[in-house]
Amino acid sequence: MSDELNINKKRNNQIKTKSSATSGRGETDIDYVRPAELPEQDLYHGHSFITKWIFCQDAKVIGVQYTLTAVFTGVVGLILSWMMRMQLGFPELFPFLTAETYYQMVTMHGMIMVVYLLTALFLGGFGNYLIPLMVGARDMVFPYVNMISFWMFFVAVVVLMASFFVPGGPTGSGWTLYPPQAILEGTPGSGYGILLMLISLSLFVIGFTMGGLNYVITILQARTRGMSLMRMPLTIWGIFTATVLALLAFPALLVSSIMMTLDKVLETSFFMPTIIKAGEALSYDGGSPILFQHLFWFFGHPEVYIVALPAFGIVSDLISVHSRKNIFGYRMMVWAIVGIGALSFFVWAHHMYVSGMSPWFGFFFATTTLIIAVPTALKVYNWILTLWRGNIRINTVMLFCLGFIVTFVNGGITGIFLGNVAVDVPLSDTYFVIAHFHMVMGIAPLMVIFGAIYHWFPLVTGRLLDEKLGKWHFWITFLGAYSIYFPMHYLGFIGVPRRYFEMYDSPYMTSAVGMNEFISVAAFIVGAAQFIFFYNLVKSLRLGKPAGKNPWKANSLEWLTPDVPPTHGNWGEKLPVVHRWAYDYGVPGAKEDYITQTTPPSEVKDAEVEKT
Amino acid sequence: MSDTDLDKLPGGFKGMSEDIGSDQTTFKGVNWGKAMMWIFLLSDTFVFSCFLIAYMKVRASVVEPWPYPSEVFALEMMGVPVPLLLIAIMTFVLITSSGTMALAVKYGYEKNRKMCGWFVLLTAIGGLTFVGMQAFEWSKLIFHDGVRPWANPFGAEQFGAFFFMITGFHGTHVSIGVIFLFIFARKVFRGDFDTGKRGYFTTMKSDYVAIEILGLYWHFVDLVWVFIFAFFYLW
Ligand code: HEM
Ligand SMILES: [Cu+2]
Question: What pTM does this model have?
Fold first, then answer.
């Protein structure tokens, strides 16, 4: 096969030189696109219900499966957050909320939200659905492996959920799972709970790797004719870079999970130092708990960007489409995504400032951390400049995008505080940190997810979501989330520690009591507002306004399939041919305010399109 | 950079930037599976690096003395302990199997079914020998010397823990490779790669390129062994 391709390549080069020399035809063909390099993809078409909907190899179905499973875990995480807020706002109201259950809820909430909801939703959900469609492929390159990837994830979720039901309950070590406490008696769930957590994480990593390899290779090696890397929508760039990060960061999580499992089961001492308990030495000796922290955060920090980069990419596209303007500084945006991705491997120890490390080490990591702020700020400016003088449609999608920018900037600024060692040391492990990361990686990406669902729901189902309910959903979520997290900055300043289940009546914290009640009420309302959204999804699925083709008048390929919603194989008879980037909106001289990626130059001769 | 700037750069650069800037594929003429294996190996490199770096960190910081590898891994030959004898043979076998794998790939591309099949089989046997010798080494350490993951008579207990974990993880890689080598040997002999028979699970057509992909994995596993060898037995 590779010989065949080489010949193809040579032939292409010949054709290229011929057409540019304008020999033969008299005039250059301005619509010229290099001929196909690859043979048609060989696809397996399911016939039975099982191969079509359950063990399905169609990336679109897999994407929906990932999304639904991830959203299910998200609802569990949400309910846990309700119970935590119940305890924090109104302590001792519910006798079943003990300190132990609180720790378990904190842990499960954190891990579920970060890994099983956001990572799975952005990469597994949006990645699967959008990558083949947006690059013009018929499917992922290895649909079978892709299918296994989802089922691995599914088993990982089942194992995780099983830990709620085993003796001792789920682990209560905090989502960072720091040893030695994670596996020592006295921590809730230090028996089966932590074990199931570690197994579930390992399964997640294995499953993700299968999917991730697919995403990377589909983007690198299976684009359609005319789709160069620099014509890909930013959504794809975000997902691509995040996937590469994940493929390089998850190994550290896998390794630390394996080592901790051995510490737990075989009583090895990788992470476990000499410990005296009730006057007696445990069997552990000489391990290094800090080593775990390094491994965990070598995964953990890139993980933040695994969640953020797809959100960056998606929001760029949404903003561009709904303000009818090209994205400002496309190339800069691409390089910023790639640069942030690369830098994210050199900042991990900013999570360990209080672990007793050398000041020089802290100095180094503070510097790298602040350097990341540069490309990040660049992106924010570019979003704003895209909106600037755009023909903005204030619909639900746009509202969520604006909400994203606000919450992201807010969280980003507190990040600069926390990146500095001297400021972080007193703020570490307080509610200031909670406020920071909920703003920047909790609420901001969720805003993008909601925006993206309002945007792409018509593609997936053929029907529009209800705008009125959508606006209610947005305003309650946005204002509510602000009411939850903004006061938490203050709580952090007065020193309220995170992961404490009750303040009792510590006299210096009386001013926190009323605030905690307020935050809790807001959290209940925000959580309840999500059910408006679920109702909207279910209702619109059956009764929503039919969307027709390309309801947003977008340029990118996913809206240009012959069937809407796209069917297996995506493109019917012929693959699309791409002539431009995805951002030709409001081009002077063009008949309409958008020029799709497949429109050949000869049809828009008078328009002043960007050269891409 | 303009085209003329590019022309000034040495050979491959121009082609590389053209490939990256072009449509459809970034690595021209590279089969999907092959590209995927390369990226997977990159990811797996990070796994092994994490293991080895963790090992170095702990070895550097434990207070108890680290066992002396030349003595621990010595074999008694005619009354004299010969350091690293078994490991040397193991390493030799594994590296040789990389050679036979390379030949299998060569014959695969020549569509020489018989020779390809034999060399795949030979590689599998090499791998199996390696795993067998590793099992022998483990059992010697466990039953004869009393080394356990949680304790050992020679000093720092992490010695056993890291040894079993890392060689075990590597051995698992070799074993998976061996299983696939046997399966592929059967497929080659049966002629699947000549007829393009469809896979039972994946329903995709078989192609000799699969041998090369498996070969990439196999060479990688060998390369990792070289590092483990250096860090465990020579340090
Ligand atoms: C309705 C929305 C949410 C509410 C009300 C909420 C509430 C909370 C609360 C009360 C805590 C425990 C604080 C403590 O005692 O230390 C917490 C921790 C945490 N949350 Fe959320 N959360 C929400 C959404 C999210 C989302 C979307 C994410 C995804 C990134 C997230 C990630 C985390 C993490 C990582 C922790 C730390 C867990 C730990 O300390 O081990 N949360 N959240
Ligand atoms: Cu970080």
Answer: 0.92
